[in-house]
Amino acid sequence: MSTETRETLEAGQDDSRAAEDTIAAIATPPGTGGIGIVRVSGPEAFRIGMAIFRAADAVYRDAPPPSHLLTYGHVVDAETGERIDEVLAAFMRAPRTYTREDVVEISAHGGPLLLGRILRLALAAGARAARAGEMTLRAFLNGRLDLAQAEAVMALINAESDAGRRLALRQLQGELSARIGEARAAAMAALAHIEASIDFPEEEVPPPERGELAELVAEARGTVDALLVGAGWGRLLREGLRVALVGRPNVGKSSLLNALLRTERAIVTPIPGTTRDTVEERASIGGVALHLVDTAGLTATDDPIERIGVERSRAAARSADLLLFLLDRSSSLTEDDWRAADEVRALGDAADGETVEATPVIVALNKADLPPALTEAEARALWPGAAAVVDTSAVTAGGTEALERAVTTLIAGGQAQGADPLVASTRHADALRRADEHLAAALVALDGGIPLELVGIDLRAALDTLGEITGETASADLLDRIFAEFCIGK
Ligand code: GDP
């Protein structure tokens, strides 16, 4: 279905979100395909399904087919009696469905016009066009998934690497939610003790020991901190590693990028400074997505067009997770090499506060197919902090494996340091950081003899913040924002 058609259908929706209504959507992507699926969910799903589907087997014409059985038949326009398509339909009884509501899925031929027609029949029979993510929202509201799991559905669909997929699946299966649950349980236990002593001061409730409370809060904080440690690494797994190729003009950045991709995308020319823009390509090493950015060089220039390229290069280098600094091994170090290295180092002092100081650098001694004029020691003198120095040749593609090994080692190092990468989204990391602050404040208050009521306020704030991740305390506004990023039909 065309975008316009989708928009027209969406525009007709009202604003009610009560699950009394039945929603319908094309669940497969726009465009043509072998099959396309129209999904209907809600209390009227079976009635609507029966109104538009006619089973070949007459037994299933008066009453719906058995639940979860794929049934052969036709979609029929009841008004004209016209057969629209030959399909398979599944009538699935709540609660064993994606939304936990009654669901009908019609697998038709995957043509946009055809699917649009079937969807319109479902709408005419009483369904409302589903909003983006509304099926998953219902699964969440009906308690089948918590919020972190619902988000994992989208992360799984959008996964760009195998590592990212694995991470999303673990989140979907509830591993992150379980850890959040542990942290909440410990904080909740501490809060319960405090509230009991506040609510029943006259009764036989002994005042809680501050030491015991502190232990519970520290336990909650330990869980939160362990999740935070893995967060940076989790983001890399999900979003991939941004690698910027830097170095003076003509060292072979574009060529090496091409060799790494084994394609011919970047423009390669023997004239210095002709890569005027940054070129970004995707590759994958060790199951991790790599975003390779070829920079135009960082050397200051008077040429206004080149200056734009230089600015872009600087921005790319600044936001990179890894810098690949290229040298031409067939010639001795030039002033431009030193200048380029200084430029990269100077990016650390950038006004925007981002620093490349901590960004690991791998030095590639390129053009290794030519007679060498440069030693590893000289390269190390230029880049004392380099994580690795490897020989590469863009011409013979030699050394690309060594380079890939160096990247993999770096990735593995991050993995070892990064503990468990269960947190991949900035939203989650942000909530964890805020929860951590509240728990830290509670610990300080407990230690400093501050009244328990006030400790309770910090604990409640921590609980609410953790609840934003799994959805117990998520506002309607937050839910809207999250589910709006989903696809229609999911
Ligand atoms: P950039 O300005 O750093 O992007 O450099 P280019 O990729 O445009 O390469 C500059 C010149 O060096 C071109 O003529 C390339 O063919 C050549 N070149 C690049 N890499 C190698 C290499 O590994 N070996 C050899 N022999 N030539 C290379």
**Could you say what the CATH architecture of the largest domain is?**
3-Layer(aba) Sandwich
N-to-C CA distance: 16 Å
Indicate the structural class: alpha/beta
For CATH, the homologous superfamily of the largest domain is named as P-loop containing nucleotide triphosphate hydrolases
Q: How many separate domains?
A: 3
What is the 3D form? flat
Hetero compounds: guanosine-5'-diphosphate
Structure annotation, total helices:
17
- Total strands: 13
Essential attributes:
about 500 residues; alpha/beta; Four Helix Bundle (Hemerythrin (Met), subunit A); Rossmann fold; 3 domains; seven-stranded mixed sheet; six-stranded mixed sheet; about 45% helix; disordered N terminus; binds guanosine-5'-diphosphate
Describe the protein's topology.
Blueprint (H helix, E strand, L loop, with lengths): L2 H9 L11 E4 L6 E9 L3 H8 E3 L13 E9 L4 E11 L10 E8 L1 H13 L3 E2 L4 H8 L5 H11 L4 H11 L2 H25 L10 H20 L1 H9 L1 E6 L6 H9 L17 E7 L2 E7 L9 H16 L2 E7 L6 H12 L14 E6 L9 H7 L5 E4 L8 H18 L8 H22 L4 H19 L5 H9 L6
Parallel strand pairs: 1-7, 8-10, 8-11, 11-12, 12-13
Antiparallel strand pairs: 1-2, 2-6, 3-4, 4-5, 5-6, 9-10
The protein binds guanosine-5'-diphosphate.
Guanosine-5'-diphosphate binds next to helix 10.
